[in-house]
Amino acid sequence: MPEKQIILIIDDSPSNIKIMNEILKEDYIITVATNGEKAISSLKINNFFQTDLFDEKRPLPDIILLDIVMPGMDGYEVCRQIKNNKSTSDIPIIFITSKDDIEDEEKGFQMGAVDYITKPVSPSIVKARIKTHLLLKKQRDLLQNSISVLQHRTELLLHKAELGMLAAGLAHDINNILFVAMMIENLPDAISDNFEEKSIIKAYVKDTMESLRMGRDVCRGFTNYLKDFDEEEMIQLFPPLFKPLDMFEKTFKVKLYREIPANLPYIKCKGSQIKRVIINLFINACQAVDGQQIKRIAIRAWSEKGQIFFAIQDNGPGIPDHILPHIFEEHYTTRKDGNGLGLSMVRKILHNHNGTIECSTTAGEGTTFTLSLPVFEV
Length: 378
What we know:
The structure is a single chain. This protein is of the alpha/beta class. Helix content is 46%, strand content 19%. Strand 9 (296-304) and strand 10 (307-314) form a beta hairpin. The chain is elongated and about 110 Å long.
């Protein structure tokens, strides 16, 4: 059963309060203040103005019924103070008055009231007006929440775009530095004529060059990833998309078993994005086997019923049951140096390609990710 909403009645007449209470007590929680000063004081004392976040006495009222003519502080001034407070400004205020002058109504609306009910009151009108304005407030709140969510998402996208530009610039600068560093390739011919020394130097330079090329390719690949948002889908073969693994296999020093037939059907995709999927899944597998005495990763691709399937299996410790339901959530990670974007990005890319991804894992034996992509029908 839904919790009753709260109505605050501000009126100096006990008889008026009694009438309103009888009309509304069945459907709402009624609170009362008998003049303007007590109303404002009561609001503050009872935490309606939320001055103390750790004081949980009573929640804000959902709507206020306010008499205009009261001794001391009149209804207009009470309305003004409530509307000028950020915590209470959204609470609907309905004036209850015997006045029926158009100027009085205009003044009330200018102060922020949403409606007028004239005395003597009609129970059916009171209930209908209150119900209407509570419903309108609920719809406004829902709309505001939706706007807030959209604003947050917009800010997040702008933030991601800014980070992407900074990352692309950083990758470009590193790539330039690596290009200069690769001049080391000319070093052996410049520093020694001794054959034995030159052979040793060349061996070191060869390893250094391999690392530099790998770094350059990573930077190029990263900047390409940031550009592939506007990449057009192309009809292409699936096996060549695994080419980047040659470089990463050497980096992580794992035993990689491949079973990727050359005669797989064509797919229509954004190649750079599918490469990102393959690389991310491979890096995850490499991290999973880190620490194992024998590091084994197997990848297999096959076609079946209009789909191309790709599975990557590691012999790591497996994914714990309490973590498995969250692995595709954005920003969820169990690694101190992780950002939780890898598998979330993988799933989004596959979804955009009408593909799927599934995970199966066994404690102590390893994990397998299986993805599918639709075959391009010629």
